[in-house]
Amino acid sequence: MVEAEGSEAIGKALADPQSLVWVDLLIDIEKDAAILSETFEFHPLTIEDCVSSRVDPPKIDDHGEYIFVIVHSLSRYVPGKELEPVEVDFYLGSNYVVSCHREEVPAIDQYRERCRKNGTALRRGPDWLLHGLLDALVDEYLPIVDALDDDLDRIEEQVLERPDNELLQAIMTVRRNSLRLRRATTPQRDLMNRLSRGEFNKLIRAEATVYYRDVYDHLLRIEYLVEALRDLADGALSTYLSVVSNRLNEVMKVLTAAAAIFLPVTLIAGIYGMNYPASGVWPPYDSEWGFGTVVGGIAFIVVALLAYFRYRNWL
User: Fold this and answer.
1) The 86-92 sheet, strands edge to edge
2) What pLDDT shows up at residue 281?
């Protein structure tokens, strides 16, 4: 394995059909991608995808002498934060692989270190090298799924204890992350299926397609796990809403009972609180024991209603 920099060195290596060239570009501005147009002479539309600040959906384009592949890296997962995919673009040619990304991708850095320690993948050819890079990116997905599953387990335990707004935000974050995982895995699964069925036999040899099929199987399994994760997130959301609704019902039940208790009390107090005397009212307004009788009657009504509500299990 020989490492070199500069378009001149790359051009010399490309001129040797027996060599294998891997160019990894961290693109910050358009001039960083000049090597794509000047040295490799790639199609302008593919270069535009590489330099664009937007994240394009995964796809694969056949340009005859090379294929252009877009995949997503999801290595940076922080619990409670939304996933931010990083677009990674690959060019696969007869004796080269070019990888382009606008941010550091740990999976590519780790694979480069593996190649420095053991250059087997580099000796097998560009199709094997592309497989190794794609496999390294897909391997990032499963730990994220496991981390989201752990987050859901923690959330489900807290839902019954304290269903507050922060917990609702955590549930919605998990749901959005599972949706982003699904948006990444589904098109990449179809992409891997195309690479594994011999559609590009000019650049991907038959003995390498079975390894692409293995990456396809990994994505298929991850997609099943993501679907299960979405169901669990929906279940956690339903549990949260049910707990909140039950607590609201308890509060409304207490308030309704209190209103039912104080309604007759308010009626009695209103009658005896009028500003003019009425004949025939018992107990009389001017009686020495009238106030005590009214208060005692109010207390009796309150106790009787409380006992009745307790008997009916309404409180």
Assistant:
1) 21-26, 96-101, 86-92, 67-73, 59-62
2) 59
Scanning 197-289, the segments in alpha helix (DSSP H) are 206-272
Whether the predicted model's global pTM rises above the 0.90 cut: no
Q: Which domains does the chain have, with CATH numbers?
A: 7-245 (3.30.460.20), 251-311 (1.20.58.340)
3-state secondary structure of 178: helix
pLDDT per residue as tens digits for the range 39-91: 888 899 998 888 888 888 899 999 989 999 999 998 777 877 888 889 999 99
For the packed helices 165-196 and 206-272, what is the interaxial angle rounded to 10 degrees?
A: 160
Q: Residue 30 gets which letter from DSSP?
A: G
Decide if 313 contacts 284 (C-beta within 8 A): no
What is the tens place of the pLDDT at every residue in 239-274? 888 888 888 887 888 788 788 888 888 877 777 766
Cα–Cα distances in Å, from 94 out to 74, 97, 107, 109, 158?
29, 9, 24, 23, 55
Say which residue the tokens 């594994």 belong to: 196
* Whole-angstrom distance, CA of residue 28 vs CA of residue 269: 79
What residue type is assigned to position 289 of the chain? W
CB atoms within 10 A of CB 152: 20
Measured in degrees and rounded to the nearest 5, phi and psi for residue 71 equal -130, 175
Q: Which contiguous run of DSSP H or E holds residue 124?
A: helix 120-124
β pairing state of 21-26 and 96-101: parallel
CA atoms within 13 A on the CB side of 276: 2
For the residues of 38-65, what is the DSSP string, one character each? HTS---HHHHHHHH-SS-PPPEEEE-SS
Average pLDDT, integer, range 126-150: 90
Length of the chain: 315
Q: With beta carbons less than 8 A apart as the criterion, state whether 9 and 23 touch.
A: no
